[in-house]
Amino acid sequence: MMNHLLILSVFLSSALFYGGDAGITSSFIRSEWPAVDIPLDHHVFKVPKGYNAPQQVHITQGDYDGKAVIVSWVTPDEPGSGKVHYGTVQGKYEFTAEGTYSNYTFYKYKSGFVHHCLVSGLEYDTKYYYKIESGESSREFWFVTPPHVHPDASYKFGIIGDMGQTFNSLSTLEHYMQSGAQAVLFLGDLSYADRYQYNDVGVRWDSWGRFVERSTAYQPWLWSAGNHEVDYMPYMGEVTPFKNYLQRYTTPYLASKSSNPLWYAVRRASAHIIVLSSYSPFVKYTPQWHWLSEELKRVDREKTPWLIVLMHVPIYNTNEAHFMEGESMRAAFEKWFVEHKVDVIFAGHVHAYERSYRISNVRYNVSSGDRFPVPDKSAPVYITVGDGGNQEGLAARFREPQPDYSAFREASYGHSTLEIKNRTHAIYHWNRNDDGKKVATDEFVLHNQYWGNNIRRRKLKKHYIKSVVADRIAN
Predict the structure, then answer these.
(1) Annotated catalytic residue: which of 322, 349, 425, 447?
(2) How far, rounded to the nearest angstrom, does the alpha carbon of residue 27 sit from its chain's CA centroid?
(3) 174, 332, 368, 438: least CB-packed within 10 angstroms?
(4) What is the pLDDT of residues 200-236, one digit of tens each?
(5) Dist. CA 9–CA 126, nearest whole Å
């Protein structure tokens, strides 16, 4: 117990991570596979055996607090059963949930039957087995629910963005699956099917669903949408934004009182996760603006100390690619992020990796104030993980000189993990996909913004000392 207290004291007495020194631009040049999509006849896109067998299976969190999942899948030829059979013993399915299905057209492509089924009333920290049937074809999978919402609940998230379906994408997915993470925070740009035309758009949405099923069927991926989900193609007569994405990938938006599945929030273990939509209206008085204002008030850092925000377009970006595209959202929301002491903001969009120090530019209002970002202990760390491996390739041109607020940047493919240890600190890694090996290239200890407060640190330390005394008396 005393060793644990000593370790805790070291972390609590450390300075909050934000820095002020000039950062690092990695000179690493990665030998990568060509940025082209994997051929459709490759085994990674294999269609499951059996007539009308369920495919493209994926799960996501189904409620606000992690006691439900939404199971989604596609049956290609006919609706089949919309039921999910599940239980805690493999092969013995005590419970059944029934969902809904729909299909749609995109140009002349006609989708399969897309099923969504809410499985609720689950126990925390429990492994469930589930089966999906369609006639004589059935498939079985499993998932593990998170621990109950608690300030010291440990949990490990994976972070992936801008994935696509190239061999580089496959490398990222395989490396992520070795990480031990329990759920994915996905930062937008899934299939890159919009790089195709006509019927091939729908075909590549299907192939991506089969491509990622090896992970998405077994653990929740929390979705956010990027520009490659918009699918605005007037030359094909398709002008409804996000049509393919919203049919296939659902979110528990109603549980967080959102009016739109593109922005929502969940609580998972010790984290409160807010998902924003970079390509939906967010200026003052819009639905997303109103919703975020209310959702930030609902955050209870005593229960979920870690406040994480996901978006597609980065607010701070020193790459030539997509430079300044996040400025409008920064102007709309950065003040709130600082006021509520958001711990970290993850974004994609730029096909490279970059991490900032804790900085803000809230003092500048066009007519007065500092014109440059400055160190700010109340601000989030901004991390861009847009390096999943898609066919557009890497964004290798960083702006020079590197700004002081940029801590580390590199143009390589990879993924990140955020391992929350307790209410005070988490361990962050960015893992480069280096010639078939997972290489931890950027890592640091992330200190919690809420419990980093001096008064709360003393309160927490006093609580642990009392625990040590109580244990000694009891023993």
Answers:
(1) 322
(2) 27
(3) 368
(4) 999 999 999 999 999 999 999 999 999 999 999 999 9
(5) 32
